[in-house]
Write a structure and sequence with these properties.
The chain is of the alpha/beta class. The protein has 3 domains: 16-258, Rossmann fold, CATH 3.40.50; 263-397, no CATH class; 404-458, no CATH class. It has helices at 40-59, 74-83, 87-104, 120-132, 161-166, 208-218, 232-247, 278-282, 287-294, 307-327, 341-347, 352-368, 372-389, 396-401, 411-426, 430-442; strands at residues 5-8, 13-16, 24-29, 62-67, 136-139, 142-145, 182-187, 202-204, 222-228, 252-258, 261-263, 266-267, 303-305, 445-450, 453-458. The strands form 5 sheets. A 4-stranded parallel β-sheet has the order 4-3-9-10, covered by helices on one side. The protein has a 4-stranded antiparallel β-sheet with strand order 5-6-7-8. It starts with a strand and ends with a strand. 41% of the residues are buried. The chain binds one RNA strand through helix 1, helix 5, helix 7, strand 12 and helix 10.
RNA sequence: GGCUCGGUGGCAGAGUGGUUAUGCAGCGGAUUGCAAAUCCGUCUACGCCGGUUCGAUUCCGACCCGAGCCUCCA
């Protein structure tokens, strides 16, 4: 059986994945700060780690997958203020929308979805512990982590404290002992949300929640911690500092980070304002097309987002669905998932492009083979591959007949036209037959004559 | 300025010390009333310069170019 190998950001190498406890895997992926819609870049880690979750579930008997919701953050405070709404209203609304959007991309629900505001107590006690052990200090109402107190600070992101100061872009605040010190707990004004703490009314710093929630739900260390590349520093470096200094232990055995989705060769980010929301894209493309596009490159490679990318993803899916349509997508197959080539490809650090190549090969086999055993094998490969990749969720006819642009043109009307054309063809009135076909094409319906009659699909 | 990653054929995108990635697009053919779909065949590759090697796209070094992080960010 193939063994799982994953690239560990910490070591910079692909490593054999071994869970801490036999057969049981713990995975934590950084989720959204819920103050507006998720963009397509936010969706990449969700889809990537969803693929990993699916693979892990085949290999291990118990997989616990946590994806947090950051529901207290200054950005949410600002968003609420702008809309004149409660913070809870904003965070609840966008939590819901986030769940809907990710579900539309066929991301399975995580095992747990911890919320920051449900773990304030744990965050306070974590901060307290860091103060007691000399890794944190109070200054001007803030509690700060002292980066110099940790020998290996910077080990994850591969940087040294001296190097970081060279750029001189770290926030220089005179209440910090070292410019790299970061906030664990900060004071809240009357108008800001806050919780009682040994340091007065305040709220947590950005990095604190993940450390506290991992501790609360998984204990000292987890097997996999994932997120986007941009989180390596400072977020994950600081999480690691907090957790290791407070509780000791490994904290995280395998760090995984996905590369970004680009837009016209530039980074897509909310601050640059060049984002496309998942919600908006879903009104133009099926979720499966978006998902397919997101995993068309290996997760550690940058992915440039474009209409061309989406059209390629659509034709890739068309290709597979077309092959599936020949033999139907229903029925049992006897090949264990762990023995499929798609599984093997994904076990190699989620090599989705190689998995795609396997899928294409299986589709080609279905298109041309006359050997029952071969066909069965290819069907199994395609269908189980679809399960692992989170693709091919529809039945082929639904897939090809969705999104017909024409208004008021229903399937039964199309069938009537197909029959009329068949009659025209039978009487060798090819002019009429072609006119019917052209008229349907103008309505976004493509006809395909096959040995068993004519089928239709939405056109380009 | 510091750190990290990458430069593959028209485009997208894997991989490898010596045999086809794969997909889209193109071209030729089969099939079709004509198409579409499918099948068969086929053309453009590994940034640049050195080094190691019998042999490098694949390892090493320099160079050029690009991206990311160093500040909220998936």
């Amino acid at each position: 059986m193939a063994e799982l190998r994953i690239y560990n950001t910490m070591s910079g190498e692909k490593e054999l994945f071994t869970p801490q406890r036999d057969g049981r895997v713990s995975m934590y992926v950084c989720g959204p700060t819920v103050y507006n819609y998720a963009h397509i870049g936010n969706a990449r880690p969700v889809v990537v780690f969803d693929c990993l979750y699916r693979v892990l579930n085949v290999r291990y008997s118990e997989v616990r997958y946590a994806r947090n919701i950051t529901d207290i953050d200054d950005k949410i405070i600002h968003a609420a203020k702008e809309r004149g709404a409660d913070i809870e209203t904003v965070s609840r609304e966008f939590t819901e929308k986030y769940r809907e959007d990710m579900a539309a991309l066929y991301a399975l629900a995580p095992t747990i979805e911890p919320k920051a505001t449900d773990h304030i107590e744990e965050m306070v006690s974590l901060t307290l512990r860091l103060v007691e052990t000399g890794h944190a200090y109070e200054s001007h109402g803030h509690v700060l982590f002292a980066v110099e107190s940790m020998q290996s600070y910077g080990a994850l992101s591969g940087r040294k404290l001296e190097d970081m100061l060279a750029g001189a872009r770290v926030e220089v605040a005179d209440y910090k002992r070292h410019a790299g010190d970061f906030v664990l707990w900060k004071p809240s004004s009357e108008s800001e949300p806050g919780w009682d703490s040994p340091w007065g009314k305040g709220r947590p710093g950005w990095h604190l929640e993940c450390s506290a929630m991992i501790r609360a739900h998984f204990g000292e260390s987890i097997d996999i911690h994932g997120g986007g590349r941009d989180l390596i520093f400072p977020h994950h470096e600081n999480e690691r500092a907090q957790s290791c200094c407070a509780y000791g232990g490994d904290f995280v055995r395998h760090w995984m980070h996905n590369a970004h989705v680009g837009m016209d060769g530039e980074k897509m980010s909310k601050s640059l304002g060049n984002t496309r929301t998942v919600r908006e894209l879903l009104s133009h493309y099926p979720g499966e097309v978006l998902r397919c596009a997101l995993i068309s490159a290996q997760y550690r490679s940058p992915l440039n987002f474009s209409e061309i990318l989406l059209e390629q993803a659509r034709s890739t899916l068309d290709n597979w669905y077309r092959a599936l349509r020949r033999y139907g997508s229903q029925g049992d197959f006897s090949i264990p998932i762990a023995e499929t080539a798609v599984y093997g490809a994904l076990m190699d650090d989620l090599n989705t492009p190689e998995a795609f190549a396997v899928m294409h090969a299986a589709a080609a086999t279905l298109n041309k083979s006359a050997d029952d055993a071969e066909i069965e094998r290819a069907r199994a490969e395609l269908l189980t591959g679809g399960e692992l990749l989170g693709l091919l969720n529809s039945n082929p006819d639904e897939w090809f007949q969705q999104d017909v642009k024409s208004e008021g043109l229903f399937a039964d009307q199309i069938e009537v036209q197909i029959e009329a054309r068949a009659a025209a063809k039978a009487s060798k009135d090819y002019q009429l037959a072609d006119d019917i076909r052209a008229a349907l094409e103008a309505e976004g319906v493509m006809l395909e004559d096959g040995p068993d009659g004519t089928t239709w699909r939405r056109g380009a």
